[in-house]
Amino acid sequence: MEPITIEITTNSDRLDKYVTDYLKQDYDFSRSYVQSLIKQGFIKVNDNLVSSNYNLLIGDIITIDPKSPEELNAIPQDVDFEIVYQDKDIIVVNKPNHLVVHPAIGNPDKTLVNGLLFKIKDLSSIGGYLRPGIVHRLDKDTTGLMIVAKNDKAHKRLTEMLANNEIYKEYLALVHGNVEPNKGKIDAPIGRDKNNRKKMTVTEINSKKAVTNFEVVKRFDKFSLLSCVIETGRTHQIRVHMAFIKHPVLGDHLYAFKEDKNIEFGQFLHSHKLSFDHPVTNERFEFSCELPKEFNDKIVEIEK
Fold first, then answer.
1. The CATH homologous superfamily of the domain defined by 165-304
2. Do the record's keywords include Transferase (predicted)?
3. Domain 4-67 sits in CATH 3.10.290.10
4. 117-149 pLDDT, tens digit each
5. Is 0.85 surpassed by the pTM of this model?
6. How many CB atoms sit inside 10 A of residue 275's CB?
7. Is 139 in the active site?
8. Which of 60, 89, 139, 252 is catalytic?
9. pLDDT digits over 183-199, tens only?
């Protein structure tokens, strides 16, 4: 399917409605499917990623890459990751480094979702074609524990639990510098960086509340190992908050220093512990997983 370009000549509807109506005759996509195309970045305005409820203005240029459902459907692939726990409702996985969670532009396959589809017969449908079962995400270079839903009932409840801060999520982060004090709370809203769409930043503009609690686990000469417990789940939250207090995560190619881009491992950030009540049985679960070898090796290196 060839890309489509549209110039808006009069003030118009919100983006998802306009595109649904425009494509109706040739493609007959549902509005919810058009919303999924917008979310995945296949529909842009002025070459920018925008939300489905963006109100179109005179002069706006819409670009549409009208992917069919078949093209967007994630395929089963044998991908290496560990299943820590599984029952009929949920899965807990240990995500390795350099593994993207779900297909998107630039990463069409060989993601965690592709691996889940290869290993698991049933996943919840709420995430759609590209995010079946995905309740929350970890960045590509963040390792550790994630919860996946196997049915819609579990998915809906887990989403509610995340929104209500009912899931305890603790990370280990190796950051630049000696962090003072030993414990602290970063309560600073996070939104999209207006100068770089790939980055998030602490801002009062179009932002959402973000809270990270931290505690120093161990200090080294030029680094600190922190335990970070997040009360909210914003994109890049710990990475943005650590950079905000001038202690960016070591190896963070986006938010740390120029020399960090030379660290192939990426950011030293690990989802270490999860505690929550089972979304269906209410049984209390607690999981933890060890640091990746590369993370441990780096600690040994900087201890010398």
1. Pseudouridine synthase (3.30.2350.10)
2. no
3. yes
4. 999 989 998 877 778 999 999 999 999 999 999
5. no
6. 14
7. yes
8. 139
9. 999 999 999 888 887 89
